[in-house]
Amino acid sequence: MKKSPALRSVKDTEHHLGLGHTTIYSLIAQGKLVAVKLGAKTLITNDSIDAFIEGLPRADIRAPKAKAA
């Protein structure tokens, strides 16, 4: 089994979560994602990405009602 990296770039996090650049930085500012700096590069901890995903509410999706004939 392939192990996830400990740190992800902002761009990789965007692709991983399917979110945009502004949303990722907003989540960092809100403390929902943990970012660290390595020189000029901003990296996001994979643990915080996993915790963010785990904290999302479950979708309440219901089957469509059958149409009356």
Order of H and E elements: EHHEEH
> Helix count, per DSSP?
3
> Kindly state the mean pLDDT as a whole number?
93
Strand order of the largest sheet: 1-3-2
Separation, N- and C-terminal Cα atoms: 50 Å
- What is the strand content? 15-25%
If you compute it from the alpha carbons, what radius of gyration comes out, rounded to the nearest whole angstrom?
17 Å
Q: What structural class do the secondary elements suggest?
A: alpha+beta
Portion in helices: 25-40%
How many extended strands? 3
Low-confidence stretches: none
Tell me what you see in this structure:
- The chain has 69 residues and is α+β, with helices and mostly antiparallel strands.
- The protein has a domain at 7-54.
- Helix content is 38%, strand content 17%.
- The protein is built from three helices and three strands, in the order βααββα.
- It has helices at 10-17, 21-29, 46-54; strands at residues 7-9, 35-38, 41-45.
- Strands 1-3-2 form a three-stranded antiparallel beta sheet.
- The radius of gyration is 17 Å and the shape is elongated.
Q: Summed up, what is this model?
A:
The protein has 3 helices and 3 strands; from the N terminus they run E-H-H-E-E-H.
Blueprint of the fold:
Elements: E1 7-9, H1 10-17, H2 21-29, E2 35-38, E3 41-45, H3 46-54
Antiparallel strand pairs: 1-3, 2-3
